[in-house]
Amino acid sequence: MMDGNDLASETTRRGIISQAWMRISQVYQGTLDKWTPHTKGRWFGSFLLLMAFVIRIITKQGWYIVTYALGIYHLNLFIAFLTPKIDPAMDFDADDDNGPALPTRASEEFRPFIRRLPEFKFWLSVTKSTIIAFICTFVDAFNIPVFWPILVMYFITLFCITMKRQIKHMIKYRYLPFTHSKPKYKTVESTVTVN
């Protein structure tokens, strides 16, 4: 049976642990907030991390299952990044026989493209999963012997089928998930010049 001193010390330990966890969470979130506007730098760092992982796999000649699982996970993240948050295939309010479509005229409702997986969460998931996979390459239990060319062929087949389906969906519902070729509109202040 616990007396009053044991109970108080247990409560104090829990409080210290929860405060430490809260502080770690705040530092982590603060660091992520600082990285948010630096898109190119974040992706460059993730690319370097992924290249370090690939170099480790090639030099150690193992952990192909980990690599395959990482590839499948990254493919799922990429598909979620390309998919709109509100899927037009599920919008059954359209009157025409072809099914629902995004607005094509000025009189129709404008719906901006909102991703199912935002860019920052996409980057964060890719980076975390690559770090976890890199750590797994130091554990021999994950080095399951497999014939890796079969995994490569299966991944290529899966990638082609998945991307073909995604591109057909994009063509059918007329949306483009990238902004580099879309027109950019200027504000009134930026078009006015002072002599």
Automatic annotation (TrEMBL):
One Gene Ontology cellular component: Golgi membrane
One Pfam family hit: Rer1
Parts of the chain that traverse the membrane: 43-59, 65-83, 146-163
Chief location: membrane
Domain of life: Eukaryota
Localization (cell): Membrane
A single GO BP: retrograde vesicle-mediated transport, Golgi to endoplasmic reticulum
Cell membrane keyword on record: no
Signal peptide: none
Membrane topology according to the record: Multi-pass membrane protein
Function according to Swiss-Prot or TrEMBL: Involved in the retrieval of endoplasmic reticulum membrane proteins from the early Golgi compartment.
Name the UniProt record assigns to this protein: Protein RER1
